[in-house]
Specification:
The complex is a heterodimer. By secondary structure, chain A is an alpha+beta fold. Chain A contains 10 helices and 18 strands. Classes of the chains: A alpha+beta, B alpha+beta. Chains A and B meet through α2, β3, α3, β14 and α10 of A and α1, β1, β2, α3 and α4 of B. Chain A: Keywords: DNA-directed RNA polymerase, Nucleus, Transcription. Chain A: One of its GO terms (cellular component) is RNA polymerase III complex.
Amino acid sequence: MAPSSGRRAPSAAELEERNTVGIRKEIVTNTVSDDYPDNYANEEHAWDKEDFRRTFKVQFHQNDQFEAQFSLIGVDASIANAFRRIMIADIPSLAIETVFVNNNTSVIQDEVLAHRLGLIPFTGGKKGLRDFMGFWRKPGPEEDAYATTFDTNTVSLKLAAKCTRNKDAPRDSRDPKVLYDNAHIYARDIVFEPLGGQAKWFSGEDTIRPVNPDILIVKMRPGQEIDIEMHMHKGYGWDHAKYSPVATASYRLMPKITILQPILGADAEKFANCFVPGVIGLERVTRQEAKTKGSGYEGHEGELKAVVKDAMRDTVSREVLRHPEFEGKVKLGRRKDHFIFSIESAGQWDSDELFMESVKTLKKKCGILRPQVTNMVQTF
Amino acid sequence: MPSATKTRDSSAEDANMEDITPPSAQPVVDSQEGGDPMEEDGEDNELGEEEEEEEPQRVRILPGSTSTAASFEFLKEGHTLGNALRYIIMKNPDVEFCAYAIPHPSEDKMNLRIQTYDTTTATAALEKGLQDLEDLCDVVSEEFWTQRENFMAAKH
């Protein structure tokens, strides 16, 4: 506990100041977390679940199936970052792992083709992907190459196509897609071949399929052909980015723009142009404001003034700090505990589901380690 | 499995590719050290039906530790848990010092140092940290889900 110093509880203004990362022309200030016991006299700052429940807030901005934006308010960067990292690297998904090239006479080399195939995002019945499908294990040196390959851990795909001349093509045509059949091979041409019990989980709209059918895999010319079989396995983003269930998962801190002195007329317009459209609004100075002594608006009734409309949209480019006329009139910052998350799913999970899964995963990590710590051999 | 590939001598080539990792200064606890990353996570067995197999021990206390000042070594953990755990342990008023490090990027290890006042022990502080982090996760998922439901209801 902090020694008593007779210091009073911090004012709202001081708390606000502590919670703001200052952004000046060339430097940033107050970037470090300080909410630890003993950091401020007479302040607790110990972990308390109920305190956290009261102060922690979530705000949704967008929640589409594959794209979500929301704010976590009242957490530390280390926690927000853990969730972000887990979404990228610790949530499993299914991707092409092995490519068997029976024939490939296209201009793309086997290994390049295999790499392209690996990066194609696939989706399928959620229940089957989560519950039925498990992890494939590499067979031991003595084991058969397929000793560990089952319908519960491997999805088989086929891609076979041969490019031929289109006899019915118009004589004057120059478009390869018209002149030849199978000139372009797309992700939609990959055929899923259900093994064993997979038919039950992955049929109809639950079938294993590329998220975007229009991904171009290879271009061919008459006489060229590819004949490929693929095995998909479940894996983690820490092993290879193709297993990452998110296209992007990132956060940024909430921008904060404080106008310290009135910015009026032509200056106000220039001021607004220093920011992304929509961040700064222009309003007319009201009679009330013009009457108030010391407001800086005296005698400016009806003129345009700059107001902060939507700080969240700002990119904090610091453009405004380059202009001498705004010096001392504006302060830029970011809220230290306000994380605007943006999650874009690659297609196997819903975006909000991904965040829930990341929280679950962090909890599971702790749950597995806690008994291990308790049972740890104390050797010192 | 594909008949055309069945006959191929599959992994002989790969088996010899294994790099010899430089010996660690610390005795190896986990037998899976240096193994294939896909062999990971005993709990994720291939049938996915059986409940979790026994987890391999992934924490140990490092030599030179005392009851109030200890270093812990976590296998297969990184910045994700390291920094989160460090934060929550630092919020414990009985803890004087807490920090984490990843001694070498190519070794999948994370070290955590805890020094406490006499009111508790380092191991107890670590256990409390893990418990607090679990509690935090509960609060986050509850709030997230309520707000999600509110948002979706407001949209329709």
